[in-house]
Amino acid sequence: LLEERNYLRKSYRIQLPAKVYINGKEYKVLDWSFLGFKIEKHEFYEFNSGEEYIVDFELPFASFNARFKAKAVVRWSSAKEAGFEFTEISDEAKLLMKDYVEAYVEGRLTNAEGLLAVSEGLELPVEVEPEITEEEKKRLDAKLKRALVIVFLVVISVFSIGYLIYQNMPVVYSAQAFVSGKSINILAPEDGIISKIYVKAGEFVKKSSPLFSIRNEEINKQISNLSSLYNEKKKILNRLYQNLQKLKKASSVYSKVKLTSLRNQLKLLNIQLKEKQEELKTLQKAYDMYLIKKSDIDKVKTELQELKIKIANLKETIRAYETLNQPVDNISIKLTQQINKLTIELQGIKEKLLNLRNLKKNWTVYAKKDGYILSINKREGELVKKFDPVMVMDVKTDEIYVVARFKVEDALKIKVGNKAEVLIPSIGKIYKGTVVSIGKTSMASDSIVSETEAYALKDVPVKIKINTKDKDIYSGMYAEAKVITESRYIFIVDFVARLLGQ
After folding, report:
1. What b-and-e string marks burial along 310-338, b requiring 16 or more CB atoms within 10 Å of the CB?
2. How far, rounded to the nearest angstrom, does the alpha carbon of residue 108 sit from its chain's CA centroid?
3. Residues 48-78 pLDDT 10s
4. pLDDT 10s digits, 387-426
5. Which helix (H) or strand (E) holds 57?
6. How far is 65 from 25, CA to CA, in rounded Å?
7. Which residues of 85-102 are buried (b: 16+ CB within 10 A; e: fewer)?
8. Helix H segments across 208-329?
9. In this structure, are residues 377 and 186 in contact, taking their beta carbons and an 8 Å threshold?
10. Closest CA to 178 of 490, 452, 394, 467
11. SS3 384
């Protein structure tokens, strides 16, 4: 059925009368087995795939009804029908349903006007046979020997056929496989737009090769604005510096005359400082004898401090005149202050520009190891967020893996831990292995494909770990794989059970 293409039936279903009650509502069962059932839906109710229900399953007989509870999950749903699989059912109920299926197959259970009816077998009278003669006994012995030989040959043939089935039918094959290393997602370093993709899916890339680059219009705009601002302020700084140099040259002669005057002022201030210090000592003694107030001493101390400040400023001015490297007039001082302030601003702008440009360099993402590009998830011009997976890369490690793609119906039989065999035609070797993952995890640990979506794809990826460290094997080599599924053992048990039953 089209609705069941993503769900593989694992048992034969029969169309005997049955009902199921879900959430208190009765539904007609169209067909069923001890593994699942299909119902006729009510038009107003919708079943979503993956939902689990507690159901009451009822088999109506002519004189009584057999009912049991079970858990069932929705596997598919269409406009008029829905398919369920039992996820939790008692062993007694399984045996009961299995017996009903076998009775139906053998003709002992029939459909009688919507009810199950049991057909009893006929009993034949036993005839009394006459005693056989010696000659007939010899003929019977000969026939018995021939029969034993035939039975022996038949048994050998049956077991031979069974062995062939054992070797072939329960094994699933894939001719779409390749040697894989370690699959990793290559993530976007920042928000932005994919400006360039330098590689293709399936391509081998060396370490440090560029993989893709991202541009961010907002950051580019900030860089452009800061660059313009930096250039503008740098021009202003150059003009201020040139003006300061002109002022220094013009004041060179004046500064020599001024220097002599300033030195004389300094001498005078030093004399005044000594006089004030002597005055303070005298006042201190008078204060100790309670002749003056403390405010008189504080006043002299204040005057003494002001003199020291004047002397310090005058020394600084004299030093500037002596070196001719510092401004000595108000205009030059203002110019110098503007130059210093502007220099600090330019340094801050320069650091911001450097950080943004370094960040922009990181937007070209390079391969950290040799490997193969398995898939590319984004296109050029597409918007991405920081840490979005852009591509999946296969890098080689000490452990050797093979990624094989199987049809959905085959992948549903495979489980993690199943034994596998891998053929690498280019070197003509077969290796033993084990299934380690199925679905999205076979490609990358955080693939954008969900596990459910992986099973809905045309082919399902399966990763197999090879039990070898053969140096002749490298990533990307074509391979063929077969997995020995658990259905092999179920098949053999079922085959033997049917054989003994017959």
Report:
1. ebeebeebbebbeeeeebbbeebeebbeb
2. 55
3. 889 999 999 988 776 667 888 999 999 988 8
4. 889 998 877 667 788 888 888 888 888 888 899 999 998 8
5. strand 52-60
6. 17
7. bbeebeeebeeebeebbe
8. 217-250, 252-288, 294-323
9. no
10. 394
11. strand
Distance, in Å, from the CA atom of 225 to the CA atom of 486, rounded to the nearest integer, reads 66
The CA-to-CA distance between both ends of the chain, in Å, stands at 32
Q: Long-range pairs for 259-264 at CB < 8 Å and ≥24 separation?
A: 259/318, 259/321, 259/322, 262/314, 262/317, 262/318, 262/321, 263/318
What residues pair up with 479 in beta bridges, in sequence order? Answer: 177
Residues 69, 74, 77, 83: is their CA dihedral positive or negative?
negative
Tokens of 142: 């000969």
Read off the pLDDT band of 287 (50, 70, 90): confident
Place of tokens 């045996």: 95
Phi, psi of 423 (to 5 degrees): -105, 130
Q: Which residue has the tokens 């021009």?
A: 235
Side by side, which strands form the sheet with 383-384?
Answer: 364-366, 210-215, 192-197, 383-384
Only one residue has tokens 């009584």, namely: 64
Residues 6+ apart with CB under 8 A from 222: 356
- Cβ atoms of 216 and 193 within 8 Å: the answer is yes
- Please count the residues of the chain: 502
Contact indicator for 287, 294 with CB cutoff of 8 Å: yes
Binned at pLDDT 50, 70 and 90, residue 198 comes out as: very high
- Given a contact cutoff of 8 angstroms between Cβ atoms, the answer to whether 321 and 255 are in contact is yes
**Does residue 403 contact residue 211 with C-beta atoms inside 8 Å?**
no
Backbone angles phi, psi at 176, to 5 degrees: -110, 80
Q: Are 57 and 20 in contact (CB under 8 A)?
A: yes
Place of tokens 């021939």: 146
d(CA 315, CA 312): 5
No. of H helices and E strands in the chain? 9, 22
Helix (H, G, I), strand (E, B) or coil at 226: helix
Asked if residue 72 lies in contact with residue 85, where contact means CB atoms within 8 angstroms, the answer is yes
Fill in the DSSP letter of residue 11: S
Look up residue 217 and give its two tokens: 């219009």
- How distant, in Å, are the alpha carbons of 189, 196, 352 from that of 223? 18, 20, 9
